[in-house]
Design brief:
Elements (H helix, E strand, L loop, with lengths): L2 E3 L4 H14 L3 E5 L9 H14 L4 E5 L13 H14 L4 E5 L4 H13 L3 E8 L6 H13 L4 E6 L4 H10 L1
Parallel strand pairs: 1-2, 2-3, 3-4, 4-5, 5-6
Helix pairs in contact: 1-2, 2-3, 3-4, 5-6
Length: 171
């Protein structure tokens, strides 16, 4: 079970981290895109330090979800890559969640950087309006696998039993 931290402010995020410590969860996901200063690398790194101080024995997943994939991050692809690079270099996160729909060279850059630092990459793909066909899903998974992600994650909006069956079969 992964417990998300989704606060908008530093104080709220710290309160959420304290709650996670109290319930003895072992893995946390900080949804950085919810943070009001999500484009300020220094502010993000500072909050990450505080999260780690509170959750020192937890596995930490950092997620920066763009608006095109259902998140709140509105920075450029360059800012996105720089933010993840800074988080990786900081050495605190165990996993990063990279959107597979981004420019392929940027995705590969982040995957390689993470792996050099012995960190893991969740490659994700989201479509909250529909579920792709089984063949489309298989192609998405093959593309993500070729990008060398450690965990391949998709999220879609299934509306029929057949879509659910196709989705599960493709996975």
């Amino acid at each position: 079970i992964v417990i998300p931290l989704v606060g908008k402010t530093k104080d709220t995020i710290i309160s959420e981290a304290l709650y996670v410590r109290a319930i003895e969860a072992k893995m946390v996901e900080w949804r950085i895109d919810y943070f009001e200063h999500n484009q300020d690398v220094s502010a993000v790194l500072e909050v990450m330090e505080e999260i780690k101080n509170i959750l020192d024995d937890h596995v930490i997943l950092a997620t920066v979800r763009t608006t095109s994939q259902g998140g709140l991050y509105e920075g450029t692809i360059g800012q996105y890559v720089n933010l993840y690079s800074a988080l990786l270099k900081q050495g605190i996160v165990d996993f990063i969640d990279v959107e597979a729909k981004l420019e392929e060279s940027k995705v590969k850059q982040l995957v390689e950087e993470a792996h050099k630092l012995q960190k893991y990459v969740v490659l994700s793909f989201h479509d909250f309006e529909k579920t792709c066909s089984e063949e489309e899903l298989k192609a998405i998974y093959a593309h993500m696998e070729a990008l060398n992600g450690d965990i391949l994650k998709t999220a879609m909006m299934a509306t029929t039993e057949d879509e659910v069956r196709d989705y599960m079969h493709a996975a």
